Amino acid sequence: MQDLLQPTVKRSLEDRELYDNLMKRCETLTRRVEDLETITHKSENKQTIFDDLFMRINEVVIFHFKRALFLIEVKDTGRKSDFIEMSERFKRLEDQTSNIALDYNHLRENLKNVQEFSEKLSEDFARNIVQLDEYKKSFATLVADLQKTITQNAELQKNIQITV
Asked: How far is residue 58's CA from residue 36's CA, in Å, rounded to a whole number?
C-alpha cells in the first residue's frame, strides 16, 4: 500500500515545493516593485506619465503571475514539462519587468537632465536680459553725453564765429 501511495505523496511534495518557490519569487518581485515605487516617489512627489505606465505594467505582470499560480494550484502539476514551461514564462516576465524598470529609470534620468538643462537656459536667459538692460543704460548715457558734447561744440563754434 505504501509503495502505491509513495509516488503520489512525492508528487504532492514536489508540487508544494514548486508552489512555495513561486510564492517566494512573487514576493521578491512585489518587494522590488514597491522599492522602485518608493524610490521614485521619494525623489519626486508628483506622478508623471512614466509612473502611471510603470504601475500599469506592474499590475499586468502581477495579475499574470497570480493567474499562473492559480492555474498551478488548480491543475495537476505532475507533468514536469508544464512546470518547466511555466518557469520559463515566469523568467521571461521577470526579465521583462527588470527591463521595464531599467527603461523607466533611464527615462526618469533623461527627464531630470532635460529639466536641469531647461533651468540652466532659463537662468542664462535672465542673466542676459539683465546684461542687456545694463548695456542699454550705458548706451543711453553715452548718447546723452555725446549730444551734450555736440551741443557744447556747436555753441563754441557760434562763439568763435561771433568773435571773428
From this structure: 11
User: How far is C-alpha 94 from the geometric centre of its chain's CA atoms?
Assistant: 19
The 10 Å Cβ neighbour count of residue 97 is 21
**Residue type (1 letter), 145:** D
| H runs (alpha helix) in the chain | 2-43, 49-74, 80-163
State the angle between helix axes of 2-43 and 49-74 in degrees (0 to 180), rounded to the nearest 10: 170
63-92 pLDDT, tens digit each = 777 777 766 665 554 555 666 677 788 888
Vertex 99 angle, CA 98 and 102, to 5°: 90
Terminal Cα distance for the chain, rounded: 146
Q: Identify whether the C-beta of residue 18 lies closer than 8 Å to the C-beta of residue 77.
A: yes
CA–CA separation, 16 and 71 (whole Å)? 14
